[in-house]
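Case study 2.
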Amino acid sequence: MIIFRALFFLVFIASAACAEGDAALKPLHEESLAATVSGQIMIGDNMPMPYGVVLLYDKLLGPPPSLGKYWRVPDHITALGNDGRFSLELADGTYYFQVSQKNPGAEIGPANEAEYLYFHGDAEGNSLPLIVSKGQSVNLGQLKAFLWKPDLIKRDMGITSVEGVVVDPDGKPVERAVVLAYYNNIGQGRPVFISDRTDKSGRYQLRTNDGGIFYLKVRSVVGGGKPSKGEYLNTTKEFEPVKVTLKKEEKLKGVTLKVMKMSRPGEEAEDIEKRDWRKIVQ
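Prediction:
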């Protein structure tokens, strides 16, 4: 098995210790338990990864994660131990995984510079599957992480994406929003893909694994929970997502997403970027 060390990734974060949709992880005593997959994530030869989280992807729920073409939302996350060790209890199936570092105080969402990533893949950056069946105990041993660099993201050749700007009702650009892509037209549950945060000009690029129909929703946070006072949401009726159709390797440009601030009388605005990122995205 070749462990990929040199590309990029995402750290994204969004799902997790929420029961909704988390049929993939079950307690050890349950009949459906398939296997225990364990290992240790290291930085260099002697240092266990601090503040790491395992990002787990179920093949039945979406495409494997990518090292640069798109950011797939994980189906479940769990924290590493202080010694960089992990132990996953998995039901029968095929999974993909990676381990991301999230420094204390860092905002939720994609990885920042000076954070490390372990990607379970080959030398070309393709995810390697973990196929597990009941009764297995798989120890992956010590796995080495590499330093994340934003310039390793692929934004041009071979990319399928939708691009544009996020603006408020007056047409002014909205900075630091995120665009989420769903397969369902109501934009509920766990999204499949997520964009970088918008820049000062409100620009975003949301990349997908393939063409198809996607439903876009704007939020101020990656983590879950009901929208808070002061958070941006789509201005569409009932905050419905915006439908887009993409062809494979198409870069659809000029898609403007209008948003408004959520108003909740009597409620104080939250520090929304510090919300618990282990909750499922709603």
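The longest strand covers residues 33-43.
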